[in-house]
Design brief:
Number of strands of chain B: 15
Order of helices and strands of chain B: EEHHEHEEEEEEEEEEEE
Number of domains of chain A: 1
Shape of chain B: elongated
Helix content of chain B: 10-25%
Shape of chain A: globular
Strand order of the largest sheet of chain B: 5-7-9-11-14-15
Radius of gyration of chain A: 19 Å
Largest interface: A-B, 12 and 14 residues
Number of strands of chain A: 8
Order of helices and strands of chain A: EHEHHHEEHEHEHEHHEHHH
Oligomer: heterodimer
Strand content of chain A: 15-25%
Structural class of chain A: alpha/beta
Largest sheet of chain A: 8 strands, mixed
Chain lengths: 265, 207
C-alpha cells in the first residue's frame, strides 16, 4: 500500500508543478515506484514539465468516465522505468470529477505504487477539494513572500479541517542575498507563522526555467542547485536525515573565495 | 425484417425499399449500417424506391438522417439516367465541411461530423476532431484527429504541421523526441502502408 502525497500551495505560480515533477523523478531515482497525478483539469502542465505531452491519449477524466482502463491512461516516463504520469484533460473543467471518484482513483493507484504524488491546482475551490481527497500527506509549497505565506496558512487550516495532519513545508525560490539583507522573509519567520515542520528549502535557480521548457526536471541536472535541493527533499520523504544545504556560497566565484582565504579578518 | 434490401452493383451500394412503413424502414436500415459502421461511414448510397413507398418528404428526411448520423451521402438517381459515373475525386470530399476563422486555443475542442477547414492556428492543448479530413491554413500545434469514425482515407494538412499528436482513423503518431526541424512548407499527413506518413505538400502531386 503506497502513500498519497498532495503538493499544494493556495497561491499560484509558487512552483507546485515543478516540485511535483522533481520529487516524482527524485523518488523514482531512489528506486521507488511512483505515479505523478495532475489534478489541474483544464489547465494541465505536469506533462510539459516531464516532457510527455505528445504521448497523452487517455487521461484522468477518461478513466473516471469509464472510457478507458486506468492502465491505458498511465504514461511511462521516457527516462525512468518506475515513474508514471497520469495526465488530466485539457478540454474539460474541474466539475467533471467528484471527490469520491478522485478518492477511489487514488486508492486504486496506491495499490500499485509506492508513492502517488498529486499536483494540486491553485485556489481552494473544487479542484483543491478533489486533489486532497485521496491524500495521506501534504507538502505545502510557499515562496518567501507575504502573499504566498498567507495563502499557505489558509491552506494548512483547510487541510487540518479535512483531517490531513501530516503536512510539511517546502520553501521555494529562496534568494540568499535578499534574505540576508532582510528584503525577503527568512525561513524562521515563515516556520514561525505557519507552525509546521520544514522538509526542504529550494534556492532560486534560473536553470528551472530552462528545464521546464525542455521538459526535463532539474533534479536530473547534476549542476542545478534547485535539483540538489529536490534530491534532498526526496530522501527526507523516505525518512532519511539529510542536512540542509549551504545557500550562501554560490554566487561568489573563485576569485572571491580566494580573496576570502587570504584576507580573512 | 425485409423492409429493405441492400445490394451492391456497378452503380454502388443500392438500398431497395420494400415497405411503406417509414419507421420500420429507417430502423432496419440503421441497424444494418450500425453492424458495419466502418464500411458504410463516409460512403455513398443509392436509394431505390421503385414502388414509390416513400414520398418526397420522407425520402429527404431519410437522406438528412443518414448524413447526420453516419456521414453517409445519398445520391439522387430518381430521374437521372444513372449511367453517369461520378469521378473518383469526389470520394470523400463531398461531405459537409465546417469552416472556422479563428485561432483554436488550448482547452478548446472542435468536433464535427464532416471535414473541417480552419483559417487560423490550432494551438498546443487544443483538439480538432473530424470524421473527414482536416485542413488548417495556419500552424497545427495541438492534436488533430481526422476520420475519427474509421475513415482511413482522410488526411490532415496544414501550412505548418507541428502537432503534439496526429491521429487518423485508429492510428496515432507523434514526432520523435528531440525532433526540432519545423519545415517551412505546407505538409500533409496521410495513411500509407498502415502508418501515418507526413509528406511535403506538392501542388502537382494531389491532382
Amino acid at each position: 500500500m503506497g502513500i498519497g502525497i498532495v503538493i499544494t500551495s493556495g497561491k499560484g505560480g509558487v512552483g507546485k508543478t515543478t516540485t511535483t515533477a522533481n520529487l516524482g523523478t527524485g523518488l523514482a531515482l531512489l528506486g521507488k515506484k511512483v505515479v505523478v497525478l495532475d489534478a489541474d483539469t483544464g489547465l494541465r502542465n505536469l506533462d510539459l514539465h516531464l516532457g510527455l505531452e505528445n504521448r497523452i491519449v487517455y487521461n484522468l477524466v477518461d478513466v473516471i468516465e469509464g472510457t478507458c482502463k486506468l492502465k491505458q491512461a498511465l504514461i511511462k516516463d521516457k527516462r525512468l522505468d518506475n515513474l508514471y504520469l497520469l495526465p488530466t484533460a485539457q478540454i474539460k473543467d474541474k466539475t467533471c470529477v467528484t471527490q469520491e471518484q478522485m478518492q477511489e482513483l487514488v486508492e486504486s493507484l496506491k495499490n500499485d505504487f509506492d508513492f502517488v504524488l498529486i499536483d494540486c491546482p491553485a485556489g481552494i475551490e473544487g479542484g483543491f477539494e478533489n486533489a486532497v481527497a485521496g491524500a495521506d500527506m501534504a507538502l505545502i509549497v510557499t515562496t518567501p513572500e507575504v502573499s504566498a505565506v498567507r495563502d499557505a496558512d489558509r491552506i494548512i487550516g483547510k487541510l487540518e479541517s479535512k483531517g490531513i495532519d501530516d503536512h510539511r513545508l517546502i520553501v521555494n525560490r529562496i534568494n540568499y542575498d535578499m534574505t540576508k539583507k532582510g528584503e525577503m522573509l527568512n525561513i524562521d519567520d515563515m516556520t514561525d507563522i505557519l507552525a509546521i515542520k520544514l522538509i526542504g528549502i529550494v534556492p532560486e535557480d534560473e536553470k528551472i526555467v530552462v528545464s521546464t521548457n525542455r521538459g526535463e526536471p532539474a533534479i536530473l541536472d547534476e549542476n542545478s542547485k534547485a535539483g540538489q535541493a529536490f534530491k534532498n527533499i526526496s530522501r527526507r520523504i523516505l525518512g532519511e536525515e539529510v542536512p540542509y544545504m549551504e545557500l550562501n556560497d554560490d554566487n561568489e566565484g573563485f576569485l572571491n573565495k580566494l580573496k576570502k582565504i587570504f584576507f580573512k579578518n | 425484417m425485409e423492409n429493405i434490401t441492400i445490394k451492391g452493383n456497378k452503380e454502388g451500394i443500392v438500398v431497395y425499399i420494400n415497405s411503406s412503413n417509414f419507421d420500420e424502414v429507417k430502423n432496419e436500415l440503421f441497424e444494418k449500417i450500425n453492424k458495419a459502421k466502418d464500411f458504410f461511414s463516409g460512403s455513398k448510397l443509392i436509394i431505390r424506391d421503385n414502388n414509390k413507398y416513400l414520398d418526397e418528404e420522407k425520402y429527404n428526411l431519410l437522406k438528412e438522417l443518414l448524413i447526420n448520423n453516419f456521414n453517409i451521402q445519398v445520391i439522387d438517381t430518381k430521374n437521372s439516367s444513372t449511367k453517369k459515373r461520378l469521378p473518383s475525386l469526389y470520394d470523400q470530399s463531398e461531405v459537409r465541411t465546417k469552416f472556422i476563422r479563428n485561432i483554436i486555443r488550448s482547452g478548446q475542442l472542435i468536433k464535427y461530423n464532416g471535414n473541417i477547414v480552419i483559417i487560423g492556428d490550432v494551438n498546443c492543448g487544443a483538439e480538432v476532431i473530424a470524421s473527414g479530413s482536416i485542413i488548417i491554413l495556419g500552424v497545427l500545434r495541438g492534436i488533430a484527429h481526422a476520420g475519427f469514425n474509421g475513415n482511413r482515407k482522410s488526411y490532415v494538412a496544414a501550412y505548418k504541421l507541428e502537432p503534439s499528436q496526429l491521429r487518423i482513423a485508429n492510428l496515432i503518431a507523434r514526432a520523435p523526441d528531440n525532433y526540432k526541424q519545423p519545415s517551412d512548407i505546407p505538409e500533409i499527413a496521410i495513411i500509407k502502408q498502415g502508418g501515418i506518413v507526413v509528406e511535403p505538400y506538392l501542388p502537382n502531386k494531389y491532382f
